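Researcher: Next sequence.
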Amino acid sequence: MPKTAAADLELAPFTTVTFGSDTMGASSEASELSSMSLSINKLQINKVAVLGAGTMGSRIAAHLANAGIPSYLLDIVPPDAQPVDRNKIVAAGLDGAKKSKPAAFFDPASARMIKIGNFEDDLKLLADADWIIEAVAENLEIKRALLSKVEALCKPSAIVTTNTSGLPVGKIAEGFSEAFRRNWFGTHFFNPPRYMRLLEIIPTPDSDPAAMDAISHFCDQRLGKAIVRAKDTPNFIANRIGTFSVLNVIRIMQEMGLSIEEIDALTGAALGWPKSATFRTIDMVGLDILGHVVANMTANVKDERSELQLPAFYQQMLERKWLGDKAKQGFYKKTKSESGEDRQAIDWKTLEYHPRGKPRFQLLEMAKNVDSASERLKMILNADPRDKAAQFYWTSLSDLWTYAANRIPEISDSVVEIDRAMRAGFNWEFGPFEMWDAAGVAATVERMKTEGRAVAANVEKLLAAGKQSWYADDKRSSSGRSCFDLPSSSYRPLEVPEGVWSVTVAKKSNGVVKKNASTSLVDLGDGVAGIEFHSKMNSLGGDIVQFVTQTLKPGNPALDQFEAFVISNDAQHFSVGANIMLLLMSIQEGEWDEVDLAIRGFQGMTQAIKFCPKPVVVAPFGMCLGGGTEVSLHAASRQPHAELYMGLVEVGVGLLPGGGGCKEMLLRAVDAASSIRPAGRGESVELMEAMKKNFETIAMAKVSTSAAEARNLGFLHEADVITMNRERLITDAKRRALELAKEGYSAPVVRTDVPAPGESILATLKLGVHLMRQGEYISDHEVKVGNKVAEVLCGGNVTPGTPVSEKYLLDLEREAFKSLCGEKKTQERIQYTLKTGKTLRN
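Model: Next structure:
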């Protein structure tokens, strides 16, 4: 079944990396400084050196490789090393990155872009680097000693940055040359660098804005980072707010007598926070890492909540080395049982483990029925104040809002930077001020005052200015919003970098042309329309199928109104595929004509996409499964986001791709083989290999763990350009659609002469299925499903090379799909998946 570990990744904060410094040979002359700034803005970062191959350094190098940037990865020489072992430490670091889970590389083959070395033999390589990242131990003297060597070796145009999660950025460069200090600043990455989007940029008083802009631009566009400007204060923005939130939640847990499992139930999806919630996240990050972050804050920060500390039970866990996942136990641990693996949870009062409970809060059960995160938050905070869950939410959130408001201008001059840091660094759906707006600022402040709670002066300033929210809609701004500016006590347009855009903003500025319950046609400007899915999980039901088919059908007014189309949306995932609940209902009621009509309709939609007279670009991201992949396969072009978990997963529920997916994978195999050797009777070695690969992809329900792997699986073409920054996906897709239109796009002609692989390759594929069954790798029902996939992919049991049409292949797909719908074991699989979200191997 699908390999969706990456798609379901529980990402964690706390472990972070800081970057900072560069040597530009600055002069005291203003004209020379101006010239220098201009050269920085034009800087091309073609090669990077990473100094330090620990967890962060090695994974930074891995993500640079993901972006196609070659790098050097250097570390110390082991004590008493033999000549052959001088790179032992750095090699181990790179090997750790290759084996890391979640994967650090989009494609393991990208590791070839990293050249390893050591500080004694290879520092001369720095002369070739455009950006040098120091990521060594958190020791001021070690960093300064290494950087003094770097300054002497790097080229004048190179940017040098330092990694620190606790040391003041300005202090590290203290006493260095004016040129060095002028271009010195912090860049704070979150771990793991591939997945965590936040990059906090921290200037010192001497930092050159041009140098920071150069790195910001590179990390935004090439590394896909969300850039936030922070101040040189302990833990910067995200970890300062996040650490307070965690400590406060633990305090409330103890005061209310809640359990570890109850806190994780309360601090997950209901709030728009990661499903790993609080303690599962700490286990993933490491209790020691959070301990270091807290120690840095308590040692260097004195604010109104400085009394918050890690509790005694946490300190005892540190002493016992119960550090979380890396120690195989922390707040949770896995144990073996007759049924497989069980996860136990710790009792914080006794430090004894017990079977993990499944907390039941009525408020959470009610919240599950509210799709809108903002409406869900309102419901939670307006619940009966005597309810235990409601008490927890009100106490923790009101404390969070007050603390965050009090941090301006200490850690940031703007609420925007704090919200953005928490969204990108902690994977919160909303930042604290956005949550406050959703809850109602005036009403919550009134409640705080009634209860005698502290109220931040900054929110009093907001209300005194006659404003009711931190943000307001603003069609004039590039973000579609304005934000409250505290110094001026007025709203200011919230501008974002050029190219950062979304369907939501397009709807506000350009409007919606037409819509139904699950789909909208949005004017993206410049003659391009966006087709947006907005059903639950973007599952593809009748509303979407009908809307897309009619919109792209010749004769529809939209085809005259627009020159090109983009199919994408702003949700967490592009689409989880067809709505199998509706399919199962039709099967159970014996409505076989309805089943047939639904499949024909879905095939009609994908063919409308493929043969539309105007170019259709699909921009997939996140989970793009089953029917979502079939939609993408039929587009004129694809503009995928780098984090793309794409696959034809239908066999997991006992079916096969029925919306043209098998047909398109066959065409890809035939075309790939023909590009090597002209098509003959369909029996070439090249065709056999291409067919085996595509058959395995479908029959094993393979799901890519990145867009790069989606290309290797054949779902993307070599010409499909990958977007690294999710916030730029709509802009990039629109640009691609306009390119196709301006090039004089001509829709493909329906193929009627596809050389069917036929009986020879079919026999080979079926033999493979038989051997899998003999080895007891698959069940009898999976044999039946696998053979059906093979038959459709080969164009049936026909003479190799027999010319067949796309319509013929679609008919084969549809009949095979319907026959599998009639299988009892397929129906059991569908029911099980709908109930549990997992796969039944029956």
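Model: Residues 1-41 have pLDDT under 50 and may be disordered. Residues 238-256 form the longest helix (19 residues).
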